[in-house]
Amino acid sequence: MITEAEVKSTVEHQDKAMPLQFLDLRQQFEQIRDEVMRAVTSVLETQRFVLGPEVEQLEAEISDYVGCRFAVACASGTDALILALMAAGIKAGDEVITTPFTFVATASAIVRTGATPVFADIDPATYNLDPKSVAQQITSRTRAVIPVHLFGLSAEMQPLIETAGRHGIAVIEDAAQAIGAIYRGRNVGTIGLMGCFSFFPSKNLGGAGDGGMITTNDPNYADRLRLLRVHGSRQKYQYEILGTNSRLDALQAAILRVKLRHLNDWTEQRRRNAERYRRLFAISNAPNPPLLPTEPEGMRHVYNQFTVRCAERDLLREHLHREKIPTEIYYPYPLHLQPAFAYLGYKEGRLPHAEAAAREVLSFPNYPELRDEQQQMIVSAVSRFFSHGSINLEKEQ
Asked: According to CATH, what is the number of the domain 2-28+262-393?
């Protein structure tokens, strides 16, 4: 047995110059520094910075990784959503159903097309869209639904696809946090009409800035997406449709291609971290530990976040802050109650599961390089909050 005091002493010694981070991308970079620098230098030597061969190769590699026919790179995950909606013909007067428990980009992309976001409630166990709530929101103006694979766990896609099919509604997956996640044998991003990914640095596959990708199995949509990202032009100064400027930089593509080679290993480490958290909480003596994330049968969670649930969330977070343990809240305010969406007329209590989650969720560090003794320190501090006493944790080998 190792006492909590011994764990804390070890961690303090090892991390004296570098306290525990919520996400430490510097450790990741140190492991792949030479590969990244060679890739960046190669692009600098070509002086081809916008789209080009590096982007084309990344698109092919992402297509292969995800398991779809086409992948179209763009400037950000937000742009991926906007471009997908534009390609699907979403316009003013249309309605698009999505979740209020997500990052603002999911709903703001709908607004950017002129359409109206319609919020459905979530499943309180997975935090993803509740298909039954989605079905209740469908009207004659509904043209699409955007499920979000939140925190790295797929939404329950089969009933959403079936409902959408009955009503002639497009399904556009927001897979920004979930590259590599699996739903019943299929990778997210290949189940709906299109899938949208983000390469923001904090994502499981993150670049050195913004970047995005849209996946699809439909050649017509792939062609339209390529047009839309370059002002609607195939030939210089000739414009077939009105698009936008959303091109991925070659430097980002080169860095992402290096990181993609390591993604499976990093994902498995995130999954091992999640299992270690579960084992540590199981052997702690806390009388009422927080509710841990679920992984339903037939799904593969990739844990972009390890998010727990606690009725005393704010007090727990204050306690962990005093213990120098960083946490984040994704997301403290549901979108339907945000000032930016006040014009939609939602009132508190309309979507109770999303509102309760916003009050209770808390995310712990879960990056691939997180060490077992650091996880022990985190669980020990959490358990102290609930038990108001010290605990012992068995040393994880």
From this structure: 3.90.1150.10
Residue 346 backbone class (left: φ over 0; alpha: ψ -120 to 50; beta: rest): beta
pLDDT in tens, 168-188: 999 999 999 999 999 999 999
Residue 268, pLDDT > 60, answer: yes
- Is residue 316 within 8 A of residue 310, CB to CB? The reply is yes
Residues 6+ apart with CB under 8 A from 77: 105, 176, 196, 197, 198, 199, 200, 203, 210, 211, 212
pTM: predicted TM-score of the whole model, two decimal places:
0.92
Closest of 224, 146, 225, 138 to residue 191, by C-alpha: 146
At residue 299, φ and ψ (nearest 5 deg) are -120, 150
- Give all strands of the β-sheet with 299-300 in edge-to-edge order: 186-187, 182-183, 299-300
Q: What is the DSSP string of 230-278?
A: BTT-SBTTB-SS---B---BHHHHHHHHHHHTTHHHHHHHHHHHHHHHH
What pLDDT, on the 0 to 100 scale, is given for residue 245? 95
**Residues 171, 192 contacting (CB under 8 angstroms):** yes
Query: Per CATH, the architecture of 31-260 is what?
Result: 3-Layer(aba) Sandwich (3.40)
Element holding 135 (H helix, E strand): helix 131-137
Q: Report the half-sphere exposure of 143 (CA within 13 A, side-chain side).
A: 19
